[in-house]
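User: Second chain of the day. Same drill as before.
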Amino acid sequence: MVLVHVDLNKHKYNVISIPRDTRVHIDGYGYTKLTSVQYIMQATKGAKKGVEAAVMAVGELTGIPINYYVETNYSGFQAMVDAVGGIDMNVPFEVKLTHPWYAENKDKIISAGTHSFDGKMVTEVVHERFSLIN
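Assistant: Same format as last time:
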């Protein structure tokens, strides 16, 4: 899950990736993983309530009001990044791609720092999770 702030005047996008296993609270259910919020509420109260609960959980977690949301998959995310001509991504620490979407990127090392990436590489970096557990 990613949270995006768009500044249309400056043509600037700030994005933060929120790990899907982040613990959040659902009234009446207690604490659960962020990835489960939409599913739990959708199963008990319908699709619209599931989306609303997920959006609310991210807003409460970050303290940021969420005005709009988009639901997509990795292919759609890749296409969005490519549609804006790629992005500059600040990678805070070295990342080894242990579980890539594209075989040619297996075990590729992304050094810490700011990189200009196309949609394909952004998708690889945000998908990686195994090399981040230490």
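The CA atoms of residues 4 and 15 lie 4 Å apart.

User: Great, on to the next one.
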